[in-house]
Amino acid sequence: MRLPLVMVCGLAALAALTACAGTSRNPTVARWGPAGDASPTTVAASPVPLPAAPTTTARASATPAGPVVPRGVTAAIAVFDRRTGAFTERRNVTMRFRSASLVKLLIALDYLWDRGPAYTVPAAERSRLDAEAARKAPEERERLEKAEAEARARQLAEQEARAAAARECRRLEQERLDGRAMLADFVAKYGKVDEFKGIAGQISAFLDKARKVKPCPPA
Predict the structure, then answer these.
(1) Residues 12, 18, 21, 26: is their CA dihedral positive or negative?
(2) Does residue 18 belong to any structural domain of this protein?
(3) Does residue 111 lie in a domain region?
(4) Could you tell me if residue 36 is left (phi over 0), alpha (psi between -120 and 50 degrees) or otherwise beta?
(5) 164-193 average pLDDT score
(6) Does a structural domain hold residue 24?
(7) Which conformational region is residue 72 in: left (phi greater than 0), alpha (psi within -120 to 50 degrees), or beta?
(8) Alpha helices in 2-112 (DSSP H)
(9) What single-letter DSSP state applies at residue 123?
């Protein structure tokens, strides 16, 4: 006797729900025999072994080293591990930067996020990227040359400013020395004249006072 198709499907669904509701570590799976046989047969399912947890040594060896910032480069880094809930790298996290090209990094991150480290750029895309890099290479070289020229110009201007400050300091010091020499010569020539004895005494007291000479900066 053949059971109606609706009844057979209902019995199959009920058997599947009953098997899923069990709490045993060795669950059973209900299978139906040939058409016309309304009684299911029970087959024990083999347990699936879980993968072993990585050891502490393996986790430690898989931890990448911290980033190396080249000399002369100012970088701010903040890397947050969502599994451990802690930062693995923090450097200059409160420093302010001009937000130039940050959107490009986010676009690249969004593009590569689901592709993983083993992702290979397709040949057509690689050709386009190489052509774009070749087109921008002269612009980048020109930008670097301009930046180097500006840096050299700033360095030269700073050197000239220091040299000018040193020359001005030496000029003022020489004027002070010349003035003291003139005062000392006045006292030597006219200090004994009655009319100049008073002022000569004041000049002598001034010249005898210790001076606090501020050294001139190096050129």
Answers:
(1) negative
(2) yes
(3) no
(4) left
(5) 93
(6) yes
(7) left
(8) 5-20, 56-62, 102-112
(9) H
- State which residues form the domain around 24: 5-44
Provide the 8-state DSSP code for 194.
G
Over range 201-205, report the average pLDDT: 93
C-beta of residue 187 within 8 angstroms of C-beta of residue 200: yes
Per-residue model confidence as pLDDT tens digits over 79-122:
999 999 999 999 999 988 777 777 888 888 888 888 877 888 88
Q: Please write the tens of the pLDDT for every residue from 113-152.
A: 888 778 888 888 889 888 988 988 998 899 999 999 999 9
Can you state the percent helix, strand and coil of the chain, rounding each to 5? 55, 10, 40
Establish if 219 belongs to a structural domain.
Answer: no
pTM of the model: 0.38
Q: What's phi and psi for 137, nearest 5 deg?
A: -60, -45
Domain count, the chain: 2
> Which amino acid, residue 76?
A
